[in-house]
## 1
Amino acid sequence: MKTIEIKDFIHAVYPMHTYLLTSIDENGKTNIITIDWLTVLSRNPPLVGVAVSPKRYTHKLIMSSKEFIINVTDISIADETLACGTLSGRNFDKFKKLGLKKSPSRTLKTHIIKNCMAFAECKVIDFKKYGDHTFFVGDIQAAYAKEEFLIKNKFKPILHLKGSLFTTISGKITKFKPPHV
Amino acid sequence: MKTIEIKDFIHAVYPMHTYLLTSIDENGKTNIITIDWLTVLSRNPPLVGVAVSPKRYTHKLIMSSKEFIINVTDISIADETLACGTLSGRNFDKFKKLGLKKSPSRTLKTHIIKNCMAFAECKVIDFKKYGDHTFFVGDIQAAYAKEEFLIKNKFKPILHLKGSLFTTISGKITKFKPPHV
């Protein structure tokens, strides 16, 4: 079997689903970053984990507030989503700069991004450094969505392929039946 | 803003990219499971993390061998991929039952699934229980792919929507430019 080396090893597992993560500073100002490196960890209790670089302003905010919100973005705000990954909240308010709207969350101090489709509010229950990132484990306090999110074929997530290349899901949804074994 | 509660909190972050994970038992037999709960953790060193239920046979195998391989599956073997998630390797050989072919890996004892598109061979450097799953952290020893994987529009990953509903990526790939801010 002929195979070719993947130069940047981590790209073997791409595409990855792209999200916007919000966190809050000590003055009550919510910041936004783009995040791909997220996984579910447990169904009961509902836990998710996200990897954030210590170089990011968000890292300091999560360390201090012990909370974050996963804002599920979609392709209608793809440009804004990418911009959140390239600009730093240390210098300015990304909501204002990018024309995104904030709204209070249900259970946390951090705000949600109204332009997003679904939200998972998380309290940090653990964190650990792995390589060049810190892995934050969040216990989901509340999860809710706009109606469109729950309708199949209406929600078009952002899927990160590599670099600045993105795509979304195919319109075709299939129900698979296991082969007869 | 009107929102609806997401009953099963973890579905807020779906769809997730679906993979096949292989691991090896003490007799040298490689087993397969389906896995959605995977994330990159670090670029340098290249680390990934996967959540596996202690109820799964694979859990015992990774605990003992301290290695696993991420086999990047695609929609051409979607039925076989789902079947690997519903059958247990305790009882029989999934390769034989599902007509999948194995091949030696480059750096580990565990075999790869030849029918897959790309491979990341991982040595376990840490593990921790979070809720109802164990999170295994793997250091990628080698990552390689079939030529089709590296050609955009040829590789069609399996994306898990919910339950037995799957889809793949749209054929359209976009290069996003951040808005002028």
## 2
Amino acid sequence: MTEELENQEVEETSPEADELEALRNENEELISTLQRLQADFENYRKRAQREQEALVARAGERIVKELLPVLDDLERALEAAEHHEETKLEDGVKLVHRQLEQLLEKEGLAPVETDGMFDPHVHEALLTQPSQAEEGSVIEVLQKGYRLGDRVLRPARVVVAGPKEEPGGDPL
Amino acid sequence: MTEELENQEVEETSPEADELEALRNENEELISTLQRLQADFENYRKRAQREQEALVARAGERIVKELLPVLDDLERALEAAEHHEETKLEDGVKLVHRQLEQLLEKEGLAPVETDGMFDPHVHEALLTQPSQAEEGSVIEVLQKGYRLGDRVLRPARVVVAGPKEEPGGDPL
């Protein structure tokens, strides 16, 4: 201890001067860390934005690319139509339909179920009709509905069964 | 000056003590600024990742949704085919083709030009044939090519003119 004190006296430093020096150094380091972090943040922000744009472009591009064979086969079907080759035209349309359906299925598209009761979450009732079917059940689909994953992309447009028609004197 | 010195003596402070105090405060502020920035950065990172996932999902969803009417009309065309209504089938296929073409055009799809000379950047030569056309020009398209913006999604598969056939004794 005595030695230390002596040394400090020799170097003409005080504990206060030491602390000052340490704090100044610490401050400088903090400032440069802060500046580096700010620069990193700014760079990250810019990169993230560029990446987002690229991702969206690529997501579209992938589906567009997968649609090219569908477009090709449609054009072949059109040629068959021009030459009045009905069987070829029919086969072509079936092929195109199957391709498009598979492509959309792969993207996660699924038809909305329409067997059973009307469900306002996935169905849109365009009409209610008296029917022998259970009241509130779907009796006709006017336009198919689709969901993509959890989301309903388009509700199914349906006709719903109204109160049962009682063909007078129906025994209970 | 004398007054200042006197005051400092009264408060038993020295210029060094003042600087120490100031540096300590500055240090504390720098540390809390740094911690806040780190937290902001981390939050931004997490949010950007979530947003990217949502963006990709939405980019696919948008195109899938636009394809639903195409699928509807294809199904109507199939029904016409089942009932052997050839005109209706033809009209349906034409409609579907136009719809799909417009949708893809809106996404930025454009056919690769095939008039003129063979261009290895956008064409794929499947065959070279002797021809009266200029050597190296595209004389037949076997499969249409497409570009999306600046990128070639699929090169056009073409037949290229070989050296000119000289029908012996052709005057210069």
